[in-house]
Amino acid sequence: MPVIFINGEAVDTGEHRTVLQAALANGFYVPHFCWHPELSVVGNCRVCLVEQEGRGVNIACNMPVVDGMRIETDSETVRAQRKAMLQFILLNHPVDCGICDKAGECALQDYHYAYNGEPALSREPKQKGTKFYPLSSRILLDNERCILCSRCVRFTREVSKSNVLGIEYRGDSALVRPAEDRTLDDDPYSDNVIDICPVGALLSRSFLHQARVWYLEPTPSVCPRCARGCNVQLWHRKPEWRLKGLDPAQNTRILRVTPLENPRVNGPWICNRGRDLGEVLERPRAEQALQKGAGVTMMEAIEATRALMAESTRSIALVSSWASNEELRAFRNALGDNFTSFVKPDRLPEEGEVVEDELLIRADKNPNTRGAQALFGSDPPEIPEDADLILVWGEGVDFGRLPRGAKTVFLGSWLLPEVGHADVFIPLSIQTERRGHYTNFEGVVSAFESCQPRPEGVIDAETLFPLLAAPGAWGRG
Amino acid sequence: MTGRKVLTGFEITADSHTLAAYRARGGYEALARALETMQPEDVTQEIVDSGIQGRGGAAFPAGRKWQGIDPHDGQPHYLIANADEGEPGTFKDRWVLEHDPHALLESMLLGSYALGVRHAFVYIRGEYDRPWRRLDAAVEEAYAEGLFGENILGSGFSCDLFVFRGAGAYVCGEASSLLGSIEGTRAWPRNRPPRMTVRGLYQAPTVVNNVETIASVAWIIRNGAQAFREIGTEKSPGTRLISISGHIRYPGVYEVELGYSWTKFLHEDCGGLLCNKALKAVIPGGISSQVLTGMDAKVLTPGEVEGMTLDHEVLRAAGSSLGSGGMIVIAAGTCMVRLLQIMLRFYRHESCGQCTPCREGTGWMHRIIDRIVAGDGRPEDIGTLYHIARFNDGTTICGLGDAAGYAAIAMLDNFRDEFDHYIEHGHSKFGGNLECQ
Ligand SMILES: Cc1cc2nc3c(=O)[nH]c(=O)nc-3n(C[C@H](O)[C@H](O)[C@H](O)COP(=O)(O)O)c2cc1C
Ligand code: SF4
Ligand code: SF4
Ligand code: SF4
Ligand code: FES
């Protein structure tokens, strides 16, 4: 392993092949715009300057590690050159931070404060560029803010492989643009470019001017929309910044979803469906327990279910592949002997959705099929004609196709038609209202935390199952 | 006469560019002999011994570049003749392409043999029409006689040649950018490391040489490295094709033996300056080489250009270079502020826009000079121009950004009073003249 000296300290460079990687991995921060760990090295922003003894100043991201080399990341020359470089980067930058969604998490802002901090040297008018250029139905491009680091271009070439983005024209007229006849709508991973853009040039339409990021905080979670189980961050207002005047739902609303890097699951990426969690989670909720379509209290619904279970001689459970490992275990422990259980898919690929690809997206559109099958087997659901009680946990079951004579108990979260068709309906909490774990298709377990209050009238499955099995009604066998 | 000849020592007639005429002057004999009697390494050694320096701009020793490739390492290799000739003032490769295309082709074959190249390329400037037609016809002639393709002259050596026409960007002449243009990606210069002889075209070891550099190879193999060394000076062997333009009576392409007197060249061979003006300045090798002063000299003593010889060391010592061989003669009475404006407009327009200092710096300098020329200059502009120009040096990916800086610094250093005058008075000391009146 080559050993190099950074600011006088010996550093074992390990697996790292460039000075930038070795420096970052060992706690020496070197600013960088164009370099990204998952993308090829292009060395175009020229901000990652370091000084090599005897060789002068050069960019660290393309500097191979050579045993014994001596690197200064903060020498006087480096500081002066870096400062000048930032003047160049800012030359045509509009600095409209006041209306820029990136403000607060912008590398250009951070570096300016850390390494430059001086007013513009230039007195020339700035180059005008397109603002709000529509790249797709999801993304807007601000060419004035773009610093032409080409991360977004390389992402569509090297990671998502849609090849949609390129750079047109030359010099200070160069512009990021989609390829002719293409839009970023063709790229199911497009929104990652918003995250990796070091500045506020790529803007999410859904998040546009929704919030200043310093009022928000992320809750770690797991995307439930396919068996990859990408780790995500759900961004919502910080508790201390909740506004009394605001509709309480707005105070806890998820304003955006970003990837949470996990090399074993999703790396630093997620697909656009993961960003659109609201499509699933924010459907109208069922918050009222029902018996044959008529409102009852939670206790009445539980009693009614227990009565149905007591009468039944052939009980079948269709277990949710959206349930957490904790809930699944609670079900097995409390009710495993009462039901013959099958795991069912809650959701199937939708019209127009990418079914499966080589990057992240899996054909199984449920987060915990593997966790559920570990407890309840992988046999496809098979409902005997003489079944007299069917417990349906989660969505995806057509009640019309269940055996006629069977009673039905439905545990669900959203206001679906089945809610009224079941003999008993019990409303459950959703993922953002509880904590738990999912096991992805490769067996990697990821945790999600709660960030929203459970609505009144709704119960956690983990609480519910022991109640259904309470001693006195039936022994646990 | 401008000394001994390597490339232009034959009479141009209606068909002197054809294969038959080339053969009649001994063409393709060196190839036949090399394939029969020399190992690839011997050819490279001959080029090393000849001491020939690159003719494309940087004057890097060609032999040393070639030694960067091991012809027997089992990988594919590529040899590319750079015929992009985009440097303003430069039109000397055009002479080779039009009048002696077979010298280039024979040399490409020798180079390909030396470097273990199966597929060789000529990357030619898109605007070059007649040169391209002549080259294309020559390639056809050569193929028809089995000089390209499989098993050339029964030697077992095979090589194919592709002529690739560029689409008109100056930066595509930069060797690594040219690779992208051939590969079909955006023609952006690439960072070194890796060197192109390690990872070049299609990721394979590649040598890119200027047309004139390569075209000299056939002569060197035919006559021997020693004979080449006898021409020119000790440190700058051989000749240079110089395309001279500007305020000069007989513009055109001249082959000049290195070490030749500059006075004689300007005043005898090229007929002296237009309108019998005094020499104000010379840009010796394309606008990316630093301007040198003539009679109005500030840095050099008066008339020093006239006292110099044309070779790499002397020009280097004077703070400039023979660059691309595109010599631009500037007569007394020319406005250097306007001239710099035109140069900076060029760099701004041609910057590929990839790296920060060049993309922003060329535009910044151009906007400042535009403002000065419009009469709105400010005293601090000179300092800012220096700051930008100096910063560009060495902080960019390719030489374009550096060159823009060098050009500006040399103009400011040598003609500072004109810039000060323009800023102070809001107009040119020389009426904004670019023409010779
Ligand atoms: C912006 C730029 C433009 C260039 N244009 C040319 C060109 O048109 N022709 C050329 O031969 N070399 C050009 N060069 C130099 C090439 O990069 C390269 O050094 C040269 O082709 C190598 O040939 P040589 O070693 O035989 O001189 C250019 C360099 C730069 C930085
Ligand atoms: S990209 Fe950064 S520096 Fe530019 S306007 Fe936005 S927050 Fe400000
Ligand atoms: S849009 Fe953003 S990521 Fe893309 S090149 Fe511009 S600054 Fe870089
Ligand atoms: S120096 Fe200029 S031309 Fe060269 S890579 Fe950088 S931006 Fe492009
Ligand atoms: S991070 Fe090294 S040049 Fe951009």
Structure description:
- The complex is a heterodimer of chains A (477) and B (437).
- Chain A has 477 residues and is α+β, with helices and mostly antiparallel strands.
- Chain A has 3 domains: 3-91, Ubiquitin-like (UB roll) (Roll), CATH 3.10.20.740; 133-281, Alpha-Beta Plaits, CATH 3.30.70.20; 290-476, Rossmann fold, CATH 3.40.50.
- Chain A is built from 13 helices and 22 strands.
- Chain A has helices spanning 19-25, 76-89, 107-116, 151-159, 192-196, 248-252, 272-275, 278-281, 298-311, 325-335, 369-376, 418-421, 461-468; strands at 3-6, 9-12, 49-52, 56-59, 70-72, 133-134, 139-141, 165-168, 175-178, 202-204, 216-222, 231-237, 256-259, 290-291, 294-295, 315-320, 340-344, 389-393, 407-412, 424-427, 436-439, 445-448.
- Chain A has a 7-stranded mixed beta sheet with strand order 15-14-20-19-18-16-17. Chain A has a 5-stranded mixed beta sheet with strand order 2-1-5-3-4, sandwiched between helices.
- In chain A, a hairpin with a 4-residue loop joins strand 6 and strand 7.
- In chain A, helix 10 packs parallel to helix 13 (461-468).
- With 437 residues, chain B is α/β, with parallel strands linked by helices.
- Chain B folds into 3 domains: 19-230, NADH-ubiquinone oxidoreductase 51kDa subunit (Rossmann fold, 3-Layer(aba) Sandwich); 239-331, Roll (Ubiquitin-like (UB roll)), CATH 3.10.20; 336-425, NADH-ubiquinone oxidoreductase 51kDa subunit, iron-sulphur binding domain (de novo design (two linked rop proteins), Up-down Bundle), CATH 1.20.1440.230.
- Chain B has 18 helices and 11 strands.
- In chain B, the strands form 3 sheets. Chain B has a 5-stranded mixed beta sheet, with no helix packed on it. Chain B has a 4-stranded parallel beta sheet with strand order 3-2-1-4, with helices on both faces.
- In chain B, helix 14 packs antiparallel against helix 15 (356-376), helix 14 runs antiparallel to helix 17 (399-414) and helix 15 (356-376) packs antiparallel against helix 16.
- The longest helix of chain B is centred in the last third of the chain and has 21 residues, at 356-376.
- Chain B is globular, with a radius of gyration of 22 Å.
- The two termini of chain B are 29 Å apart.
- Chains A and B meet through strand 4 and helix 2 of A and helix 14, helix 15 and helix 16 of B.
- Bound molecules: flavin mononucleotide (FMN), iron/sulfur cluster (3 copies) and FE2/S2 (inorganic) cluster.
